[in-house]
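Sequence, please.
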C-alpha cells in the first residue's frame, strides 16, 4: 500500500477518498523528512516542490498538484528522478471564470467602495455612478479552458471578446477574435483579464511599458498568477488614473501585504479562484482518478 503525503490543506471528503488508495500522511510538520519513504506527494499552491525538497525522496513515484498550474513544481527535477507529475487542469475552469466575471462587475459598479462606505454610515449614491460591461471590449490574455469559459459568459452579457493567445490555440469559436499583435490588443481592450501560466514571455507582462499602450481608463483583472503583473507598475498606473481599476486574486507573494492595498480602486480576494464547493468536489474526483491511473502504471 503506497504512502501518500498531502502537504497542503484539503477537504476532509477528498482526504478520505485518497485514503482508500493508501496510507495518508496529512500536513506533516517536517515535510522533507516524511517524504523519505513516501510514494506520492500531493500539493496545492502553498507548497513549492523544489529539487531540494525531493532530493532524499527515494521512493517518490508521483507528485500531484490539486489545481491547474504546475509553476510551483520543479518538473525538470521530477523528470530527473523519474517522478510522474499530474494535475487537475479542468476541475476549476468554471469557478475561476465566474470569479473573473464577478470581479469585473464589482469594479465597474463600485461594489467594494459602496460596501465600505455604507458600513461607515455613508450614503454617497451620486459618487458611485458606475459603468456597464455590456458593449465593452473584453481582452483575454490566454484563450485556454478558463479564457474560453469566461468568453462564453461575457459574450452572453453583451461584451465583445478579443484575445491575445500565442499558438498553439483553438480555432476561433464564433465568440473570440484573435489579435496577434500585443500592442494592438492592449490598445483595443476596455477590460483585460489574465489567464496565462508563468513563462519567460508572460512574467511581468503587465508592466509600465505595456500599460502605457492600453486605453486610458482600462480595467485589469488577474486570476491567473501573481508573477504576470508588475505590482509596482500597476500601483503607479492606478494612482495616476491610467488604469481605472484593478481586481486581483493572485499575488507575487502570498498572503499579500503590499502597497496596492492603499488604493480604493483595487479589489482584492485571497486566491479564491478554485474556492467553491463545486470546484473542490471536481478537483477531488479528478485527482483521485489521476492518482489511480498514475499508480497503476508504476
Amino acid at each position: 500500500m503506497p504512502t501518500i503525503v498531502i502537504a497542503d490543506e484539503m477537504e476532509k471528503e477528498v482526504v478520505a477518498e485518497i485514503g482508500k488508495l493508501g496510507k495518508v500522511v496529512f500536513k506533516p510538520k517536517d515535510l522533507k523528512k516524511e517524504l523519505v519513504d513516501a510514494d506520492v506527494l500531493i500539493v496545492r499552491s502553498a507548497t513549492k516542490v523544489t529539487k531540494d525538497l525531493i532530493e532524499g525522496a527515494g521512493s517518490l513515484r508521483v507528485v500531484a498538484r490539486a489545481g491547474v498550474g504546475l509553476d510551483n513544481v520543479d518538473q525538470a527535477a521530477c523528470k530527473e528522478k523519474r517522478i510522474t507529475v499530474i494535475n487537475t487542469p479542468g476541475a476549476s475552469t468554471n469557478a475561476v471564470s465566474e470569479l473573473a466575471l464577478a470581479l469585473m462587475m464589482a469594479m465597474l459598479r463600485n461594489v467594494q467602495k459602496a460596501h465600505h462606505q455604507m458600513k461607515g454610515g455613508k450614503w454617497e449614491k451620486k459618487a458611485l455612478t458606475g459603468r456597464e460591461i455590456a458593449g465593452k471590449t473584453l481582452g483575454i490574455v490566454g484563450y485556454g479552458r478558463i479564457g474560453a469559459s469566461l468568453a462564453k459568459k461575457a459574450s452572453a452579457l453583451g461584451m465583445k471578446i478579443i484575445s491575445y493567445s500565442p499558438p498553439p490555440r483553438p480555432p476561433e469559436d464564433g465568440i473570440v477574435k484573435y489579435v496577434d499583435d500585443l500592442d494592438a490588443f492592449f490598445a483595443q481592450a476596455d477590460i483585460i483579464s489574465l489567464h496565462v501560466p508563468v513563462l519567460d514571455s508572460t512574467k511581468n507582462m503587465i508592466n509600465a511599458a505595456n500599460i502605457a499602450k492600453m486605453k486610458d481608463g482600462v480595467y485589469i483583472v488577474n486570476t491567473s498568477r501573481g508573477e504576470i503583473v508588475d505590482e509596482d507598475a500597476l500601483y503607479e498606473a492606478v494612482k495616476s488614473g491610467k488604469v481605472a481599476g484593478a481586481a486581483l486574486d493572485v499575488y507575487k507573494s502570498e498572503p499579500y501585504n503590499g502597497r496596492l492595498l492603499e488604493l480604493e480602486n483595487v479589489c482584492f480576494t485571497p486566491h479564491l479562484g478554485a474556492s467553491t464547493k463545486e470546484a473542490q468536489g471536481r478537483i477531488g474526483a479528478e485527482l483521485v482518478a489521476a492518482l489511480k491511473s498514475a499508480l497503476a502504471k508504476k
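Residues 93-268 form a domain with the Rossmann fold fold (CATH 3.40.50.720).
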